[in-house]
């Protein structure tokens, strides 16, 4: 085992990247596809790591990728509901973990980025994230800072003037491809055939996961590996419910704004209504109204809160939402565009607790210590009272979006 | 809305370039857009079909089918600009009961726009359409709209003996017809009376006026065992033969089918409720699935809306170009190809373009 | 002195007189057993159209007329909805639980056997292709 991530936690990220080619395939994960035009090399990974942590790539000099994707927090900013960028500006979306993100086919909650290389450029120029107006400041730094100059020359054989965002993004992607983890207690039990790796309650929870809970169809498990995502997009009734009465008005207006040049990346992070349109905002496809990417479930015990808007605080809240058939409170109205895979589950209290216990077993060893140390974090199997859920939802809508030109 | 329509026109691309509208590629209904030489004659309409609202008990209905219709209605209402009207293609209810028709009518009532109705066998065989007619009007009729002659047929009738004499109760008659594969069923037909009416109705129509027929049964003979069949198909087709441009839209089959017989282009509508196997999937029987048809993607039954669907149709010079929306699958477009003289799938018609999900066996 | 004829033929005659042996069966047996099988197929067809299999009144025949698209000839195979390589009876249970909102059956429940028999019968003659999706 001993993937580079292990040493990241210990050594504040710089200079200890283990050669990617050496570490063994984590138990429970399939081989990772590496594109031909961006092969992994130790130097490239090291460069990517440095770029990932560089706060100078923000308008205030205080925000790097690692701010919202903190290696010490399983590459999230848990427990923040939605991420905070420059000047403490909040967006509309919860920062997904980088851990195992390399297995996704599309990036961001709405899949608007087609590759992990492409994804890296967007937060840099988003007004509520890193806040630069364009990538020039980044290029200036990497073309002048001697450490970068040497690194890019070594990795890409480029002279400073030849370094473009393409190389920057490739390096970051390479680093992110090493942030993978398997070998959880579940993996050892299911694939490693260690009968004692998870307890009886978690085993019952696994049965719920496969059968009554209907989780396995989207949170995919196969015979010899488990990504826990189908890499597709589904409307499961989170967030969309807040705007469902306005969809008829708002969706056409959004498309009009998009037609006159509004940037989707900026719109969805700054406008809470646009954010709830989900993948529809990217593809214009009514079929994808309110749909978001199926997250991996690996390490969910340390990546709370949950969903694209961070609106579900604990794993139990998540399970209750699914149990209700795609509504957070039993009295909510089910939205018209709900995925055909979501329906009321009629789980008992015990089955829900068992399911949560199972989800806890998906934590890889690298994060076990973090999980144990979560003394102040909300416990996984605690249901957040309805009143607090409503208050949190209201907060998410209320924050003041930054006014940018052309925003709908 | 007027815009140039080209053969193989990509609606999604158009939406990106022109003023964006929600008449897009992902509609849960059949969108029919007719464009003629005069731009003022262009219009479009929507086509929802086969909802099969099914009562369990009292006020509870099968949630799966309810959600299918609900979603179709919600997406139709998002269309901007509004379609000229909506056609509902039949089989609103599952067992033709008053609660089912009422519940279906209630779901349809949320539609913004005028709705025309087509009779389906699941609506008809309990009370021979009596309550359905109270709700929705005539069982067969025609109307003209912006230069097109529309005909709506009740094409799910059958032999009088089966209808009136064979079964001791109306409930049993409905139950026997409700089973698609029931050997006690009886073939669909338009029937003498209606064919007479059709002949007289068409006599007033000029030969170069585009004619569009809505029928529940296919007006073709595809597979008798599942009543993908109209007993007097040839006779009906003969009545339509004199016209330059005829398009028949039909429901009942719950799958993508398209075909050309003589001057008539046939296209099926998908169900909002559930998909059916293609007849070739039944090993013990011979059937004639239209050879042109590139089949819909296979369903993952976990996703209740998969392989249920809707269409968005553009028509140029009186010919149909149908965009089938498939949930979580690529949109399919079947367009009338003037050179070939029949409908063709713009993406997948060639053998080498087929994808694995389209292989049914 | 009596000679016991110990030829094969004599032995056979001797044995034959004590009744049918383990590997013998007659046309009558075949007919009878086939009848029993067909009765179970018929029972399976009855279940196929019975609203009592699940809890919402939906019947198997609604989506699978004549058991089409059940593909018994492809099992065992990887079944996405189950997350593993599985048997047909497991998928029948998935359908009972999900679209029919009902309860699963044991693998050797006579009703399960009847449904499997009906499916196989409607698919007779199709060559085996285990693992095919």
Overview of the structural elements:
The complex is a heterotrimer of chains A (about 400), B (about 350) and C (about 130). Chain A is mainly α and about 400 residues long. Helices cover about 35% and strands about 0% of the residues of chain A. Chain A contains 18 helices and two strands. Chain A has a two-stranded antiparallel sheet with strand order 1-2. Residues about 1-25 and about 395-408 of chain A have low confidence and may be disordered. Chain B has about 350 residues and is of the alpha/beta class. Helix content of chain B is about 20%, strand content about 25%. Chain B has helices spanning about 10-15, 65-75, 100-110, 120-125, 130-135, 160-165, 170-180, 190-205, 235-240, and strands at about 30-35, 45-50, 55, 60, 85-90, 115, 140-145, 150, 210-215, 220-225, 230, 245-250, 260, 265-270, 310-315, 320-325, 330-335, 340-345. In chain B, helix 8 packs parallel to helix 9 (about 235-240). With about 130 residues, chain C is mainly α. Chain C has a domain at about 30-120: Cytochrome c-like domain (Cytochrome Bc1 Complex, Chain D, domain 2). In chain C, strands 1-2 form a two-stranded antiparallel sheet. The model of chain C has no long low-confidence stretch (mean pLDDT about 90). Chains in contact: A-B, A-C, B-C.
Helix content of chain B: 10-25%
Strand order of the largest sheet of chain B: 6-5-2-1-15-16-17-18
Tell me the greatest interface.
A-B, 24 and 34 residues
Intertermini distance of chain B:
42 Å
The tally of beta strands of chain C, per DSSP, is 2
Q: Would you state the CATH class of one domain in chain C?
A: Mainly Alpha
By DSSP, the count of extended strands of chain B is 18
For this entry, what is the oligomeric state of its chains? heterotrimer
Radius of gyration of chain B: 19 Å
Report Rg of chain C: 23 Å
What's the mean pLDDT score of chain C?
A: 90
The level of helicity of chain C is 40-55%
The CATH architecture of chain B comes to 4-Layer Sandwich
Please give the count of helices of chain B: 9
CATH superfamily of chain B: Metallo-dependent phosphatases
The largest sheet of chain C is:
2 strands, antiparallel
